[in-house]
Design goal:
It is built from 10 helices and 2 strands; from the N terminus they run H-H-H-H-H-E-H-H-H-H-E-H. The chain is mainly alpha-helical and 206 residues long. It has one domain. The chain has a two-stranded antiparallel sheet. The longest helix has 28 residues. The relative contact order is 0.13.
Length: 206
């Protein structure tokens, strides 16, 4: 089961990378974005070389990072639309399956066997595939100023990484073999073939 879960994750991850590549191809970086990126590299180098203070780094780098993100807002929005469609709408209307789950004969279910809700899928994949980060990034980009945006999104990125790692570890070494993302969203990943066998046995017994 663990191997199937890893395979499904890798399949979905490759599909996500393909989508990112396509979106990047459709919305390439502008010359202005390239210039901003170079200026960010210079500021980072100045900070690592101790030519500027940490406060100066956060202020200057944060301002440039904010401008770069603003320029790429269309791409970020496309990422969000794709991820919501692939990780929330698709499994909601396709019996809890993404393409990765389908290829590995798996599906997401509610742990209490009730009807699966979109918010559960949103929470589940916010932990493992960064959906929460992408969603918050689009919101924060509109709501915050440059320095506040840079600090907040940096914290969110670190928090997202920690949650993803902890979720994977809890699946591999946890007693219940359920990840943090499954405990919080009240979901589990099951094998379709096992469900069919259980139903057949129940029919035979009845």
């Amino acid at each position: 089961m663990k191997i199937l879960r890893v395979k499904a994750y890798l399949f979905d991850f490759m599909i996500l990378l393909l989508a990112i590549f396509i979106i990047g191809f459709l919305f390439p970086k502008t010359e202005y974005q390239e210039t901003l990126q170079k200026e960010q590299d210079v500021i980072l180098e100045d900070y690592l070389s101790h030519r500027i203070t940490f406060q100066e780094y956060v202020t200057n780098y944060g301002s440039l990072y904010y401008e770069t993100s603003k320029e790429g807002q269309t791409s970020y929005l496309c990422y969000l639309v794709f991820m919501l469609g692939y990780f929330v709408l698709l499994p909601f209307f396709w019996n809890g399956r993404t393409i990765g789950c389908y290829l590995c004969n798996l599906e997401v279910e509610r742990f209490d066997q009730g009807r699966l809700h979109p918010w559960q899928l949103l929470v589940r994949y916010s932990f493992t595939f960064g959906l929460g980060y992408v969603l918050l990034n689009n919101i924060l980009l509109v709501c915050l100023t440059s320095k506040s945006y840079f600090i907040t999104i940096s914290i969110v990125a670190i928090f997202q990484f920690v949650l993803a790692v902890f979720s994977m570890l809890s699946v591999l070494i946890g007693k219940e073999k359920r990840g943090l993302h499954e405990l919080v969203s009240n979901t589990e990943l099951t094998r379709i073939i096992d469900k069919k066998r259980i139903r057949e046995l129940e029919k035979q017994q009845s």
